Amino acid sequence: MLLNEYGEDGQILAGGQSLMPTLNMRLSNPQLLIDINHLHELNSITLDDNIVRIGALARHSELALSPIIDMYLPLIADAIPHVAHIAVRNRGTFGGSVALADPAAELPACVLALGGTVVLQSVKGIRKVKADDYFLGLYETERKPNELLIEVQIPVQDLTGLWAFVELSQRKGDYAIAGLAFIGTSEKQFIKTAKLVYFGSEIKPTLAKKTMAILINTRWDDNTRKLIAETLGRDLDPMTNLQGSAKMKLHLQKVLTNRAIDLALKREKPSR
Ligand SMILES: Cc1cc2nc3c(=O)[nH]c(=O)nc-3n(C[C@H](O)[C@H](O)[C@H](O)COP(=O)(O)OP(=O)(O)OC[C@H]3O[C@@H](n4cnc5c(N)ncnc54)[C@H](O)[C@@H]3O)c2cc1C
């Protein structure tokens, strides 16, 4: 109701870990803060028919301790320790991270890599948006100002498949300069399918579609490494900012791609 009435002049207060610093620095000036922390129905993490449902108010630290995340979404379990520091993880929420869509945030990249669906609620009802259609640009998403993000639904990972989460930041707990969420399938060290989502360097979590196409049904060898190093430059368009130049970030993403695929294939079970 309040969101509908105030639109862009009203701001949801979830964990406050991104919003409060912008208020302190006078970078945002909402007329109204709408504190949703009392909506306890939004802080559960459940498994429902092979879909993990993560409530918007689930704290990062609750994801870190959740047996459901550990068992069914190991990509997210691997990503969480990279999100800030413990104090921030104790307050910051999954929904806040996906709503804000910071380009250097880990969790939006995981939601895109895992084919998640963002559930939005307004006075008109509930709307479900696929992650592919949700992240539009720099801090820009498909969520309208009068919509509350209530939940993210993520299909359970193929536990026989490949995955890796890697990132580089200046210090542990800082936002990523470059990072990658990788999901795939393999057979006897041949990559069958691959999904590569880059963050940190790009304005939004970005699928590297040309590089993904090269990896289909491919042996992971020096030739493939060379090919993807060439192709990644056509998929990515890194931002130059205080953390580094576009050229440096592209180089880091190439290094991370090799690291992620090496790590994922190391986990491949010999029996397959
Ligand atoms: C020192 C520090 C380091 C950090 N490092 C990282 C990092 O490495 N990686 C990372 O990903 N994050 C990092 N963060 C941010 C942290 O993860 C935040 O928790 C997260 O970005 C936002 O979650 P929040 O619950 O705190 O949202 P809030 O700060 O409460 O809100 C953020 C924005 O999202 C909106 N919003 C929040 N929830 C909803 C909702 N349910 N529906 C609609 N809109 C909503 C708010 O109105 C606001 O505009 C860091 C923060 C700090 C202070």
Compose a concise summary of this entry.
The chain is of the alpha+beta class and 272 residues long.
Q: Radius of gyration over alpha carbons?
A: 19 Å
Which range best describes the helical content: under 10%, 10-25%, 25-40%, 40-55%, 55-70% or over 70%?
25-40%
Uncertain regions: pLDDT < 50 for 5+ in a row?
none
Number of helices: 12
**Level-1 CATH class name of the largest domain:** Alpha Beta
CATH-derived architecture of the largest domain: 2-Layer Sandwich
**What's the story with the biggest beta sheet?**
5 strands, antiparallel
Total number of distinct structural domains: 2
Class from secondary-structure proportions: alpha+beta
Spatial gap, N to C terminus: 53 Å
How large is the share of residues in beta strands? 25-35%
Bound molecules: flavin-adenine dinucleotide
- Total DSSP E strands: 14
Spatial ordering of strands, largest sheet: 3-4-9-5-6
The name of the CATH topology of the largest domain is Uridine Diphospho-n-acetylenolpyruvylglucosamine Reductase, domain 3
Secondary-structure element string: HEHEEEHHHHHHEEHEEEEEEEHEHH
Mean pLDDT: 95
Principal-axis shape equals: globular
What does this structure look like?
This protein is α+β, with helices and mostly antiparallel strands and 272 residues long. The model has no long low-confidence stretch (mean pLDDT 95). α10 (209-215) runs antiparallel to α11 (222-235) and α11 crosses α12. The strands form 4 sheets. It has a 5-stranded antiparallel sheet. The protein is 35% helix and 27% strand. The longest helix is centred in the last third of the chain and has 21 residues, at 246-266. The protein starts with a helix and ends in a 6-residue tail after the last helix. The chain contains 12 helices and 14 strands. It has 2 domains: 38-155, Uridine Diphospho-n-acetylenolpyruvylglucosamine Reductase, domain 3; 162-266, 2-Layer Sandwich (Enolase-like, domain 1). The protein is globular and about 55 Å long. Flavin-adenine dinucleotide binds at residues 11-19, 21, 56, 83-84, 88, 92-93, 95-97, 99-100, 102, 105-107, 148-149, 174-175.
